[in-house]
Amino acid sequence: MSINSRISGLRDHTPDERLALVAQGAELDADALGALRPDSGLSLAQADHMVENVVGLIAVPVGVATNFTIDGRDRLIPMATEEPSVVAAASNAARMARGHGGFTTSYTGDVMIAQIQVLDAIDPHGARFALLEAKDELLELANQQDPMLVSLGGGAFDISVRVLPTRAGVQVIVHLHVDVRDAMGANAVNTMAEAIAPRIAELAGSRTLLRILTNKAELRLTRARAVFDAELLGGPQVVDDIVAASAFAEADPYRAATHNKGIMNGITAVVLATGNDTRAVESGCHSHAARAGGYTALSQFEKDADGNLVGTLEVPLAVGLVGGATRAHPTAQASVKLLGVETARELASVIAAVGLAQNLAACRALAAEGIQRGHMTLHARTIAASAGADVDEIGAVAARIVADRRIRVEYAREVLAELRGGGAGA
Fold first, then answer.
1. Any alpha helices (H) in 109-252, and if so which ranges?
2. Is residue 41 within 8 Å of residue 105, measured between CB atoms?
3. For 191-213, how does the pLDDT look when each residue is reduced to its tens digit (9 = 90+)?
4. pLDDT over 90 for what percent of the chain?
5. Does position 73 have pLDDT exceeding 70, yes or no?
6. Is 261's pLDDT higher than 90?
7. To which H or E segment does residue 264 belong?
8. DSSP code of residue 322
9. Strand pairing of 207-213 and 73-80?
10. Is residue 116 within 8 Å of residue 141, measured between CB atoms?
11. Could you read off the pLDDT of 27-43 as tens digits, one per residue?
């Protein structure tokens, strides 16, 4: 498959035309992306088998980010989000990196950690040593729970044990390291943790309580790097200002919270579009931001020798292509087809690249023109629709409220009434 992510003027087409152009760029038959249409996606009957007490569905817009080159390959990227400007901003940032090779990524592996909590150990340090001595036995028992995973080259491969002082007394915490391959891995590691817990209790001469994975996926890190063209960004001063803004986020947790929110605008949109667990990924990313004891930025921006901006991002991404909603949700399946990814590593690389692009776009907007200018211009269309404008009226109402710098529903209603010839009091 040879994807071309450079689709100029995509926003100028209708949704149906965009879908056809995106399918063509991804070298897919249009029917392959049919589940992205509202009348062909997740049905109520399908939803009823996914969660409990189903009464309906909620639709989230899916846009496609363009211009992305990731590890030498073009990608068209589905993003599920309700927030205006996110898809456009990511696409624009990717365009600024495209001339310098796009995004390059690295990946530490598909490893998830299960925790087994041991309580009431008389000799916690002795218990720790006893558990480490039984490492091979415990790993064998864990791997007996998932022979398919082991046959694919994955499975449990290591154990570590911590003695943890808590306000409820000293506890012994066992970490089971599992290579989950192309799955997110929650079911596999939880099953293994529950299976080895009774033997751990025996070895420790104690009892176990919690037996569950941690979403602090520190052994499943993805790193993304890109060079953004100084001229396209707006010149040397903009580059310097973005570096200064990045330093602010690194040093101050108040700024870091919003800085990282911009990153998650991109990450969560792709995670959701592909049917992965947004809450698990978000908790993992925010815990990684606090790994040194204080909350800080997940990304950094620096100026290189040529004066261009270099962006780097490191995040834990527990995502997969096997099981869960990714397999059960037809829209998620269509999104994966559009991406053209075949492994969890490829998917994580795409997600990290989008997170970095989204972050750069927000930092540039703040440094160059203020966040409201571009964001509110796009948001104006949502305001116009909220005011009751029809599809063929939205553009005119949005343009007027932006020009008048009064992007509010009440004013949009006044403008709409004028356009319809009824006057402000209609």
1. 124-133, 135-143, 147-151, 186-204, 230-233, 236-251
2. no
3. 999 999 999 999 999 999 999 99
4. 81
5. yes
6. yes
7. helix 253-273
8. B
9. unpaired
10. no
11. 998 789 999 998 899 99
Based on its alpha-carbon atoms, the radius of gyration of the chain, rounded to whole angstroms, reads: 25
From CA 286, how far away is CA 156, in angstroms rounded? 26
Q: 355 Cβ partners below 8 Å, 6+ apart?
A: 224, 263, 264, 266, 267, 298, 299, 313, 315
pTM: 0.88
| CB neighbours of residue 257 within 10 Å | 14
pLDDT of residue 107: 97
Residue 351, pLDDT above cutoff 60: yes
Give the DSSP letter of residue 108: -
Separation CA 334–CA 325 (nearest Å)? 12
Cα separation, 103 vs 315, in Å, equals 15
Rounded Cα gap, residues 420 and 426, in angstroms = 9
Distance between CA 375 and CA 265 in Å, rounded? 13
pLDDT-derived band at 424 (thresholds 50, 70, 90) equals very low
Closest to 219 measured CA to CA, from 247, 262, 177:
177
Q: Catalytic residue numbers?
A: 83, 261, 277, 375
Distance CA 112, CA 35 (A): 31
pLDDT at 368: 80
For tokens 């269509």, name the residue.
334
Contact present, 89 and 358 (Cβ < 8 Å) = yes
H/E stretch holding 324 reads: helix 324-328
Question: Angle at the Cα of 210 (from 205 to 215), degrees rounded to 5?
Answer: 135
Can you list the alpha helix ranges (DSSP code H) found in 3-109?
A: 15-25, 44-48, 86-98
Q: How far is CA 179 from CA 134, 150, 192, 273, in A?
A: 20, 9, 12, 24
Cα-based torsion angle of the residue sequence 245, 249, 252, 257 in order, rounded to the nearest 10 degrees: 130
252 confidence band (pLDDT: 50, 70, 90) = very high
What Cα–Cα distance (Å) separates residue 271 from each residue in 47, 164, 264, 344? Answer: 19, 33, 10, 12
Question: 16 burial class (0-12, 13-18, 19+ CB within 10 angstroms)?
Answer: exposed
First-to-last alpha carbon distance for the chain, in angstroms, is 55
103: which strand partners?
70, 226
Residue keyed to tokens 């399946």: 333
